[in-house]
Request: fold
Amino acid sequence: MKITDAKVFVGGPGKNYVTLKIYTDAGVYGLGDATLNNRETLPAKYLEDYLIPVLVGRDPRNSEDIWQFFYRGAYFRRGPIAMAAFGAIDTALWDIKAKLAGMPLYQLFGGKSRSGAMVYAHATGADLDTLVESIAAHVEQGYKAVRVQCGIPGMPVSSYGVADKREDSKHYITDFGGIQPKIEIWDTERYLRYMPDALTAVREHFGPDLKLLHDVHHRLLPREAAQFAKTVEPIGLYWLEDPTPAEDQSALRYLRQHSTVPVAIGEVFNSVWDCKQLIEEELIDFIRVAVTYAGGITQVKRIVDLAGLHHVRTGFHGAPSHSPISMAAQAHLNVWAPNFGIQEYLVLGTPECDALFPSDHTLENGMFLVSDEPGLGVDFDEKQAQRYQYAAGSHPVVRLQDGTLWNY
Reply:
């Protein structure tokens, strides 16, 4: 059995999804996702110019050897561009193997550990009243867990994940349109004064059963993160996400010494080596890697196994930049993983997206239920793909009020 060809498609409804399709001489094909948000053309070009020409002619069933060939065979290893490209190939090969076996992918991992995976939604508000309305809307839809972000009074532009206009804020998703980055203004002192009271008010309004998550998005220094975590400890957060920049992993020791708030980190990590210290020293409670740019299923499964040895649960990244292909791959890992925690879920279920990526996966009462179709359980319509073209975009850039560049 041989790989005969592979194609890369860039584009989608409102997103620049990077979709890889690998074809075989057995008539079976596999799908992978190489979307690297706002740098989408880079893994696409890496696939087309460097990886696919070497991939063609290989046996797709030898996914382990192919992963090792690309990773160990590269003198300059890791990084989001390479790992997104490797991950797309790896995911597509797992899709092929499960289809050949006539089984849903999770069966190749060892079967189900649960019937479905709890997901969390994003609630946001330019002010506390709007935030409460947004949370209530998600609870009404059946969500048992919600990430909450609230505008900070006095900031010229609202904090991370919140629109700067009240009427746009309840279901806001960051706008990455345009190559020139938008500027967000950050004020740590105002955040530290306001956000604990806002989270307390949310907890009092919705009671103890709703799982509340909050994302700091790398904005605090280690001492500030420890202070904040200690202050919000009585609220009972399900997790505090990215309290400090992920590069300085030793900073989490300082936080651990001052608070028992569960910590979630890892959405910018690209390999097991990026999160090895945090897991082995048990400095985090949830690992946030994504199949998309952490090397695919082969690598992420190793991370999950390592995390399970150290009481660390999964909390895979699931921003809108992840296509339904990568979300399906993570869904199969979620129903298998003995140390599953929760799944972020922000894929926009529009008719256009459903037409491009048809599947029988479903979301019911805050649970993601995996299809039992062979493989990933998601397809890709090449004719629909012809409707979309690449459109450049950028993440926002953060500055302090005096103009100093800060962490996004």
Observations:
- The mean pLDDT is 94.
- The domain at 3-107 is CATH 3.30.390.10 (Enolase-like; domain 1).
- The chain has two domains: 3-107, 110-376.
